Amino acid sequence: MNRTGKAERTTAETSIAVRIDLDGTGEGEISSGIAFFDHMLAQLAKHGLIDLDLRASGDIEIDAHHTVEDCGIVLGRALAEALGDRGGITRMADALVPLDDALARVVVDLSGRGYLAYEGEFDSERLGDLDTQLIREFLYALSINAGLNLHVSILAGHNDHHRAEALFKALARALRQAVSIDPRRGGQVPSTKGTLDG
């Protein structure tokens, strides 16, 4: 089964291309122009065992908002394409991930319906060159465009770098499990409706 997806989007503000392989080894070729964001996306690839090629250019001289949000849109679309009709997948999963002082929990359902529930704050306004408010914006765009029900909670921590990294690692681990093929399903769509098209 070839579970790859790709998507592109070009606007007056950004130009983004994404290719993913859900059955990869965690390799990442990531360049958004926002170093801390690249570091977070690398966690998503490495710990999700998802090969991720993401190239973005945007109006970061204004700020990073358009680029980060649009990366969520395009990555979500590529993920949806890679999942196809979502037949055979595990569908629902959760992960609880620590990083030193920080602890994050992510629960996902690849239901075909995008929704984000987000609990957690950062003390710092910025992490490197990334506005911390944009983490939520990225997750919202990802969830809506992937058809992903996503619940995120930052449960503990005082170091914002650790909080953010724990969050992305938890997202990676939850996605890794949710997209995995359950051999007992025999390729069937995991829904009593018979479809996961939203």
Short description:
The protein is an alpha+beta fold and 198 residues long. It contains four helices and ten strands; from the N terminus they run E-E-E-H-E-H-E-E-E-E-E-H-E-H.
* Radius of gyration from CA coordinates: 16 Å
What's the rounded overall pLDDT mean? 94
Secondary structure tally: strands? 10
Largest sheet: 4 strands, mixed
Order of strands in the sheet with the most strands? 1-2-4-3
The best one-word shape is: globular
Which spans have pLDDT < 50 for at least 5 consecutive residues? Answer: none
Please state the structural category: alpha+beta
Cα distance, first to last residue?
23 Å
What's the quaternary structure here?
single chain
Order of helices and strands: EEEHEHEEEEEHEH
Strand content: 25-35%
Explain this structure to me?
This protein has 198 residues and is α+β, with helices and mostly antiparallel strands. It has 4 helices and 10 strands. The strands form 3 sheets. The protein has a 4-stranded mixed beta sheet, covered by helices on one side. Strands 5-6-10-7 form a 4-stranded mixed beta sheet. A two-stranded antiparallel ribbon has the order 8-9. A hairpin with a 2-residue loop joins strand 5 (92-99) and strand 6. The longest helix is centred in the C-terminal third of the chain and has 20 residues, at 160-179. It is globular and about 45 Å long. The two termini are 23 Å apart.
Topology record:
Layout: E1 4-10, E2 14-21, E3 28-31, H1 35-48, E4 51-58, H2 65-83, E5 92-99, E6 102-109, E7 115-119, E8 126-127, E9 130-131, H3 133-146, E10 149-156, H4 160-179
Parallel strand pairs: 3-4, 7-10
Antiparallel strand pairs: 1-2, 2-4, 5-6, 6-10, 8-9
Helix pairs in contact: 1-4, 2-3
